[in-house]
Amino acid sequence: MSAGEADRVEHLFDEALEQPAAKRESWLREQCAGDEEVFHDVRSLLDAHHRASGFLGKSALEQSPELADAADPTVGTRIGPYRVLQRIGAGGMGSVYLAERDDETFDRRVAIKLIRRGLDTEEILTRFDRERRVLANLD
Fold first, then answer.
1. Cys bridge to 32: 39, 97, 106, 118, which one at CB 3.0-4.6 A?
2. pTM for the structure as a whole
């Protein structure tokens, strides 16, 4: 398997985990568009993930979120006028962080979503922009 194929399998696996379990198989078939090798590779990873999901109940990071923050180099950095406080979620596209305005202009906490490197394709950026517009209308 080439590095590009491995990246595609990993990306599809991450995205598949975000799909509702009942629709995951049909979603994966659609994404693979007839590429049976990729479909079976991702399906195999999903099966292994499902079998292993009850092994420890919760991951060490779920039991101690501060470990994730300590290991995440983004926590504590600044993005524009915002200081990143902690990671609050992660998925196939990237991670979401809680941040607060840190320039004494006004107090405000926000969520900042960072797209994972390598996923900055036109399709992903279009989805990200659409999501940004929808979320901007929420309070």
1. 39
2. 0.47
For 51-84, how does the pLDDT look when each residue is reduced to its tens digit (9 = 90+)? 776 555 555 555 555 555 556 888 889 988 999 9
Least Cα distance to 110 among 90, 130, 80 occurs for 80
What is the b/e burial string over 1-30, where b = at least 16 CB atoms within 10 angstroms of the residue's CB?
eeeeeeebbebbbbbbeebeeeebeeebee
Which pLDDT belongs to residue 66?
A: 54
Closest CA to 97 of 81, 107, 86, 108: 86
Structure tokens belonging to residue 4: 């590009």
